[in-house]
Amino acid sequence: QLQLKESGGGSVQAGGSLRLSCAHSQYTGSNYCMAWFRQAPGKEREGVAQIDSDDNTNFADSVKGRFTISRDNAKNTLYLQMNNLKLEDTAMYYCAADRPADLCLTPGDEYNYWGQGTQVTVSE
Fold this sequence. Notes:
Blueprint: E1 4-7, E2 10-13, E3 18-24, E4 33-39, E5 46-52, E6 57-59, E7 67-72, E8 77-82, E9 91-97, E10 113-114, E11 118-123
Parallel strand pairs: 2-11
Antiparallel strand pairs: 1-3, 3-8, 4-5, 4-9, 5-6, 7-8, 9-10, 9-11
């Protein structure tokens, strides 16, 4: 059972930065696939970024050029660096893990494990 726990959320002014972390039990190997999602009130859950076992990444158009996804296997941690935050980035952010490798960098939320989320609030 893979356990995920997000941290690093908070309140920030527009244009600021935050780094989210997702600590997890050991999870490596050729089938590695992790992602960040977000859900704003009244909106559907949205895939933000994915990373696969070769450190290939994919981002939603809304965050390209502003967000970076990375991982530190030694620390069993996934990161989401968020720069130039906008009001519309306000949401609960979730990390997710374990999806078929051939789907990893594609849209979709068929992940087997999810964290409980961390809130990000961007204000003017």
